[in-house]
Amino acid sequence: MELIIYLWIGAMAGFAAGLFGVGGGLIIVPILYIVFTHLNYDPAVIMHLALGTSLATIIVTSISSVSAHHKRGAVLWQVFRNLAPGLALGAFLGAGIADYLSGQGLQLLIGFFAVWVAYGMFFGASKPVDVTQSLPSNTKQMLAGGGIGVASAIFGIGGGSLTVPYLLRHGVVIQKAVATSAAGGLPIAVAGAIGFMWFGANTVVKVPHSIGYVHIYAFIGISVMSFITAKLGAKVAHKLSATMLKKCFAGLLTAVGLYFIYQGVSVYF
Fold first, then answer.
1. Which of 13, 99, 225, 232 has the fewest CB neighbours in a 10 Å radius?
2. In angstroms, rounded to a whole number, what is the distance separating the alpha carbons of residues 156 and 103?
3. Tens-place pLDDT, residues 183-230
4. Alpha carbon 1 to chain centroid distance?
5. Distance between CA atoms of 103 and 84, rounded to whole angstroms?
6. Burial class (CB in 10 A: 0-12, 13-18, 19+), 173
7. How many Å apart are CA 113 and CA 152, to the nearest integer?
8. Whole-angstrom Cα distance, residue 21 to residue 58?
């Protein structure tokens, strides 16, 4: 039964990865949080375990998603090369920061962040991209990648909720922003997962079938299914209008954000 749950999570996460360029983390983290809670894992590490496992699975979903986007010529590879060093370094550092935060603190951070991004995406959905804007210098892109990497590791996501708005703000159309974000999810996921395994190895609380803060069984089950469904999500992304895609993306972020805000504040009542 546990494996079936992980396969189901992977199917939804993979589709979201291809559709929104978010690496599936916004689906994986809340569901894994629920699953690990029902498995009676220590509450002190459940959130960290969900984040680390999410990043590990994003390695697979990113590869599948970006290959589908690349076939359509939508990935801006020069932008990816500029962002990648910062994304990787930032993600490793972000895993270290997350290790020092409590589970409730992480829930509130993720919740408010998701709602904030959703607000900007939804109300900007009907606004056309300002093609007169251009991307900043290579150095500034690398620094932006660092900030995105840190936040993405803390939130257990592939960076889409930050990379997509960043690229849109600088004149990149939504489909290419999503595709490039999917590529950027790979360095974030690799460095972030290594970070969560590294920092999690020193925790006093030990969880079965895990390396640090990465649950191996969940990683395998989710990865297998998400690799298949990410390609389907990418196909759908290229059939939707830019406005519809932004609004769907905002709706997903809002649902996840409100869920974690509720979980974070419920411990005080």
1. 232
2. 13
3. 998 999 999 999 999 999 888 778 888 999 999 999 999 988 887 887
4. 26
5. 28
6. middle
7. 11
8. 11
Burial of 205-231, coded b for 16+ CB within 10 Å and e otherwise, reads eebeebbbbbbeebbbbbbbbbbebbb
Contact present, 115 and 254 (Cβ < 8 Å): yes
Radius of gyration over alpha carbons of the chain, in Å? 17
CB within 8 Å of 67: residues ≥ 6 apart: 231
Alpha helices in the chain (DSSP H): 2-20, 25-38, 43-71, 77-100, 103-123, 138-155, 160-169, 174-200, 216-237, 242-266
pLDDT-above-90 percentage for the chain: 31
Question: Which residue ranges make up each domain of the chain?
Answer: 2-263
Higher pLDDT among residues 269 and 195, named by residue: 195
d(CA 177, CA 99): 30
